[in-house]
Amino acid sequence: MPDIHPVDVYVGAMIRKRRKELGLSQQGLAEALGITFQQVQKYESGFNRISASKLFQTSRTLKVPITYFYEGKPEVGVEAASPSEQTVTAFAISAEGIELAQYYPKLSKISRRSINAVVRAMLHDQDARSGADAQD
Fold this sequence. Notes:
Layout: H1 6-21, H2 26-33, H3 37-45, H4 52-61, H5 83-92, H6 95-103, H7 109-135
Helix pairs in contact: 1-3, 2-3
């Protein structure tokens, strides 16, 4: 299995994020780029590195500047993101994160607090079950 570079994973995740923001399927993006949807999957996962010309074409198709795909990525030589920052970034660019980011700000402060409390309770229950399973 080839080494997958973190920058390729990040760029791929940004392609996926923008594609989903536009409501475009992998097949739709593939057709616009003249490639297979499997190739789009490989780009989005970072498994295949996207060429400069294909990234240029992708930026045009997704209506963003090429720099968009690198926004938020730490510069070379800058301290790597902490595990919690990596978790937040991974969630923020996931399909669920994008959807939640669209809806969450529209909720009242009370509703947001209630949702946070429910999520904390669910995690507490999940941790308790995991601990009980480990003792069995």
